[in-house]
C-alpha cells in the first residue's frame, strides 16, 4: 500500500497543475506582507481608534501573528479551489488520459487504488496548508516579529499574550488541514463520477459556495439545516482564538468534519468498485 | 492443441442502456493457443476484453481464467495476464522507462532496470527510453503498450488490435513477436483484430463475432480451407464463356454470373486448366480473383457494420 501511495504522490508532483497552488500562495502572501508593511499601522489605528479613547496600547500590535490571522481568515475561503484543482483530477485525470486501464488491469484491488489516491490527495492538501502556514506565519514572524495578538469578535475584543499565541496557530492550521481534507474528499468523490477533471473542480466549488450562501441567509429554514452542512464547521479554527477555549465545540466540529471525510471516502469506494471502466 | 483451458467464457452478456454489446458469448482458449478474436468495429470485441480484465462487470455469464473464477480470484488471475486494451495510453508527463517502472510496482513486483530495458529493446524503444511519452508517435505508444503487457512476464497475453497505427514494417515486427512469444516462450495469446489476414498469419484458432454474438469458431486451417474458394474469372464475353463450359464439370461449379464475371466454387488446382480452356477457345481472361468464402463473408459483415 505504501508503494502505491508513493507512486500516487510522485504522479501528483510530476504534474504542472500541482504547482499552481504553491505558486499562487507563494506570490500572494508576500504581496499581503508588503501591503501590511505599507498600510499595516494605519489599519491597526483604524481598528483600535475607539478603544484608544479608553485604553493605552503598548507593544507591537502589527506583528506576524496578526498578519497570519488576517491571512488565515481571508484565504481559507479560497484555498478549497486550489485543493479541488488537484483532488478533482485524481480519478477523473486517469479517465481523461485513458490510464485507468493500465492501473485496473494490474493485480491490485480497486479498494487499494482508491485508498492510495485518497491518501496522496490528503498528503497534498496537508502540504499545501503547511506551506500556507510557513508562508503566512513563518514569513510574517520573520518580517514583523512576534507580539500580542488582537482579535476582534462579535462579542468583543480579545488580546492574547505573546506567549499564548503560537500554539493556537499550530492548532488552527491543523484544524484548517482537517477542513481542507473534507474539500479534498468531496472533490475526490466527484472525480470518481466523471471522466473530466473540470467537472469535479466546478462541482466542489459550487457546493461550497451554495452551502456558504445558505448559511449566510438569515431565514429560519436555512438556519435549521445549517448544522448539517460541512461548510458550517470549516471556519471552526476560529474557536481556537476564544478565551476560554470551548473544547467541546472544537472537538464536535472536528468530529463532524472527520465524519464528512469518511462519508465522502466511503461513497467513492462504493462508486468506484461498481464502475465500468469505459475510458 | 493442449486441452488445458486458459480462458473459459460461457453465456457472457453485457448491455449498455438499450445496446446489447455482448450477447451470450462463449469462448474457449487453450494453453499455447494464439487465439484470433475477430469482428468488425463495434462487434463487441473490446467490451469482451474489458470483461476478461475486470474493467467492466458482465450482466450475465461466467468467466474462468486459468481454471479459476475471475470474479473470485481477480488479483491472482491478473498477476498472470499482460494486456493491451484499445489505444495505448500512458502517463505522458513521464518517460517510457518510468511508466514501465510504475506499472511493475503497481503489479506488486520489483521489476529490475535490466528487465525494463530488455522489453523496451524487444519493441524497439530502447533508444528513446528517457523521452517523455507525450513526445511519442501513436506507433511508438503502441509498441510501449506491448512492452507494458510483457513487463511482468505473464502467461496469458491479451492484445486488443496491437498493430493499429503501425507501419507495415512495424506490423510485421509485432506479428513476428507474437509468433516468438507463442513458439519460443510458450505463451497463450488472445489476439483481437478486425483484419482476417492479420489473424490468419499468426493464429491457430479463431472466433468471429458480430453484434456481440458468435458467428463462427474453430481451427484457422479448417475455417480457411482452400476448398471454400470462390474464384472470379473476369472475361471479355461471359455468354460465350458460359456456353463453352455447358457440358463440362466446371458448369456445375459455376456459382453466378455478374456482369462480365463468372464466379466459380473451385479449388486452386482447378484454376489453371479452366483458364487454359477459356484462352484456347478464344475467350480473353482479363483477371482471376480467388477469394475464400470466409474472407468474403467476413468482408460482408465488416462492410455492413461499417
Describe the 3D structure.
The complex is a heterodimer of chains A (279) and B (306). Chain A is mostly helical and 279 residues long. Chain A has one domain. In chain A, 70% of the residues lie in helices and 4% in strands. Chain A has 12 helices and 2 strands. Chain A has a two-stranded antiparallel sheet with strand order 1-2. Chain A is elongated and about 70 Å long. Chain A starts with a helix and ends in a 5-residue tail after the last helix. Chain B is elongated, with a radius of gyration of 23 Å. Chain B has helices at residues 45-52, 74-78, 96-106, 113-122, 138-150, 168-183, 196-202, 220-223, 238-244, 249-252, 271-280, 293-305; strands spanning 5-16, 19-30, 34-38, 60-65, 68-69, 81-84, 156-160, 188-193, 205-210, 213-219, 229-235, 254-258, 261-265, 285-292. The mean pLDDT of chain B is 88. Chain B is built from 12 helices and 14 strands. Chain B folds into 2 domains: 5-223, P-loop containing nucleotide triphosphate hydrolases (Rossmann fold, 3-Layer(aba) Sandwich); 226-305, Alpha-Beta Plaits. Chain B has a 6-stranded mixed sheet with strand order 6-7-8-3-9-10, with helices on both faces. In chain B, strands 2-1-4-5 form a 4-stranded antiparallel sheet, with helices on one face. A 4-stranded antiparallel sheet of chain B has the order 12-13-11-14. Chain B is 35% helix and 29% strand. The two termini of chain B are 34 Å apart. Chains A and B meet through helix 1 and helix 6 of A and helix 2 and helix 3 of B.
Amino acid at each position: 500500500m505504501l508503494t502505491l501511495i508513493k507512486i500516487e504522490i510522485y504522479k501528483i508532483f510530476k504534474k504542472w497543475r500541482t504547482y499552481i497552488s504553491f505558486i499562487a500562495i507563494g506570490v500572494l502572501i508576500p504581496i499581503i506582507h508588503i501591503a501590511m508593511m505599507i498600510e499595516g499601522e494605519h489599519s491597526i489605528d483604524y481598528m483600535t481608534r475607539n478603544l484608544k479613547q479608553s485604553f493605552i496600547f503598548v507593544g507591537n500590535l502589527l506583528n506576524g501573528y496578526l498578519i497570519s490571522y488576517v491571512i488565515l481568515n481571508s484565504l481559507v475561503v479560497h484555498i478549497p479551489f486550489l485543493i479541488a484543482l488537484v483532488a478533482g483530477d485524481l480519478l477523473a485525470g486517469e479517465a481523461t488520459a485513458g490510464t485507468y486501464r493500465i492501473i485496473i488491469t494490474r493485480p491490485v484491488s480497486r479498494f487499494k487504488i482508491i485508498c492510495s489516491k485518497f491518501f496522496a490527495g490528503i498528503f497534498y492538501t496537508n502540504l499545501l496548508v503547511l506551506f500556507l502556514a510557513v508562508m503566512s506565519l513563518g514569513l510574517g514572524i520573520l518580517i514583523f516579529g512576534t507580539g500580542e495578538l488582537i482579535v476582534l469578535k462579535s462579542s468583543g475584543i480579545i488580546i492574547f499574550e505573546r506567549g499564548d499565541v503560537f500554539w493556537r496557530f499550530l492548532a488552527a492550521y491543523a484544524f484548517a488541514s482537517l477542513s481542507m481534507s473534507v474539500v479534498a474528499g468531496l472533490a475526490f468523490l466527484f472525480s470518481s463520477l466523471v471522466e473530466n477533471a473540470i467537472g469535479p473542480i466546478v462541482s466542489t466549488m459550487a457546493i461550497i459556495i451554495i452551502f456558504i450562501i445558505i448559511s449566510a441567509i438569515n431565514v429560519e429554514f436555512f438556519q435549521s439545516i445549517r448544522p448539517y452542512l460541512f461548510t458550517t464547521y470549516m471556519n471552526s479554527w476560529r474557536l481556537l482564538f476564544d478565551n476560554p477555549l470551548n473544547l467541546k465545540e472544537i472537538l464536535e466540529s472536528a468530529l463532524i468534519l472527520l465524519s464528512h471525510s469518511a462519508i465522502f471516502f466511503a461513497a467513492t469506494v462504493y462508486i468506484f468498485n461498481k464502475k465500468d471502466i469505459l475510458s | 492443441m493442449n486441452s488445458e483451458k486458459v480462458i473459459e467464457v460461457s453465456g457472457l452478456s453485457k448491455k449498455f442502456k438499450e445496446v446489447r454489446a455482448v450477447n451470450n458469448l462463449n469462448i474457449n482458449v487453450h494453453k499455447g493457443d494464439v487465439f484470433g478474436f475477430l469482428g468488425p468495429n463495434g462487434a463487441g470485441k473490446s467490451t469482451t476484453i474489458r470483461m476478461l480484465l475486470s474493467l467492466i462487470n458482465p450482466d450475465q455469464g461466467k468467466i474462468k481464467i486459468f481454471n479459476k473464477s475471475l470474479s473470485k480470484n481477480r488479483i491472482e488471475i491478473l498477476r498472470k495476464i499482460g494486456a493491451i486494451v484499445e489505444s495505448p495510453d500512458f502517463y505522458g508527463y513521464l518517460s517510457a522507462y518510468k511508466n514501465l517502472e510504475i506499472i511493475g510496482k503497481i503489479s506488486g513486483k520489483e521489476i529490475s532496470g535490466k528487465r525494463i530495458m530488455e522489453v523496451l529493446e524487444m519493441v524497439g524503444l530502447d533508444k528513446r527510453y528517457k523521452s517523455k511519452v507525450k513526445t511519442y508517435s501513436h506507433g511508438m505508444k503502441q509498441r510501449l503498450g506491448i512492452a507494458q503487457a510483457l513487463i511482468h512476464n505473464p502467461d496469458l497475453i491479451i492484445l486488443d488490435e496491437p498493430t493499429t497505427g503501425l507501419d507495415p514494417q512495424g506490423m510485421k515486427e509485432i506479428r513476428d513477436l507474437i509468433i516468438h512469444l507463442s513458439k519460443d516462450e510458450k505463451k497463450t495469446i488472445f489476439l483481437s483484430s478486425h483484419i482476417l489476414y492479420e489473424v490468419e498469419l499468426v493464429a491457430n484458432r479463431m472466433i468471429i463475432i458480430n453484434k456481440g454474438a458468435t458467428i463462427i469458431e474453430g481451427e484457422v486451417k479448417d475455417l480457411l480451407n482452400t476448398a471454400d474458394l470462390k474464384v472470379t474469372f473476369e472475361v471479355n464475353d461471359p455468354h460465350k464463356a458460359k456456353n463453352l463450359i455447358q457440358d463440362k464439370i466446371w458448369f456445375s461449379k459455376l456459382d453466378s454470373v455478374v456482369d462480365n464475371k463468372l464466379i466459380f466454387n473451385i479449388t486452386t488446382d482447378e484454376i489453371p486448366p479452366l483458364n487454359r480452356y477459356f484462352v484456347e477457345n478464344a475467350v480473353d481472361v482479363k483477371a482471376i480473383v480467388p477469394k475464400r468464402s470466409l474472407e468474403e463473408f467476413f468482408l460482408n459483415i465488416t462492410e455492413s457494420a461499417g
